[in-house]
Amino acid sequence: MPDEPHVLNYVHLARTPARNYPSTLQALADHIDQPDLPLLVSRFLQFQFQDDADPNTIPSYPNISESLVSVFHSAVATFYAPSDLSGLGGMHSERIRSMPCWRKGPARYPCALIQWFTTVSDEAHEDTGMWIVEPDFDANGQRQLEVIHIHSILRSAHLIPVYSQDRLPANVHCTNSLDIFHMYYVNKYIDHHAFEIAF
Q1: Cα gap 164→171, rounded to integer Å
Q2: Cα atoms in the Cβ-side hemisphere of radius 13 Å centred on 41
Q3: Which helix (H) or strand (E) holds 185?
Q4: What pLDDT shows up at residue 190?
Q5: What are phi and psi of 152, to 5 degrees?
Q6: pLDDT < 50: residue spans in the chain
């Protein structure tokens, strides 16, 4: 491997799709309780095919609700982390949890359903040195979701809830923690690479 990488990062999906998931887009939307999933995928496809397309407009695509879909539980991100001496040439690989990617026919669109967060301040938290983020909401008060290409993902982010003085409910679990708390720290101390990019 050369001393300097040619790319900052790249992401590859797992080789084998997950089993026991619905095989159509609409059925998957019902399965994961995300009714806007077909519309989000349509916007993603419009953005991929048309460079000047506005992702906020409703695309004039035919109904893709019955399009075939495959779900991948993970992806491998390889990125440039010069301070991490364990990687050759400063390159480091990390397995991340990835949401579904869809395909129909010979074409394949590696994409991920993501939730948007925004920083609550122009500066990192004074005591922790970490940025604090909060979820974005749409006009209907629902959390802002979007389907993006996996090549738009630099790496995974480790979020720590901003706890209050109250005791945590007994039903708090890693599967619902992003729905319960209002704000989160972006943990830049999780590894070398996170510390470099989350300054």
Answers
A1: 16
A2: 28
A3: strand 184-186
A4: 85
A5: -85, -5
A6: 1-2, 4-6, 98-107
- For residues 177 and 161, is the Cβ–Cβ distance under 8 A? yes
User: Collapsing DSSP states into helix, strand and coil, what is residue 110?
Assistant: coil
pLDDT at 1: 42
Say what the pLDDT of residue 2 is: 45
Alpha helices in 72-188 (DSSP H): 177-180
Q: Is 101 helix (H, G, I), strand (E, B) or coil?
A: strand
Question: What's the CA gap between 176 and 1, in Å, rounded?
Answer: 41
pLDDT of residue 132: 96
Contact in structure between 154 and 75 (CB atoms under 8 Å): no
Phi-psi region of 151 (alpha: psi -120 to 50; beta: other; left: phi over 0): alpha
- 26, two tokens: 């609409």
CA 92 to chain centre: 19
Q: Is 191 helix (H, G, I), strand (E, B) or coil?
A: coil
Distance CA 181, CA 175 (A): 12
Terminal-residue alpha carbon distance, the chain: 28
Q: Quick one: pLDDT at residue 80? A: 60
Which residues partner with 118 through β-bridges? 134
Between strands 74-80 and 9-13, the pairing is antiparallel
The single residue listed with the structure tokens 């939307």 is 29
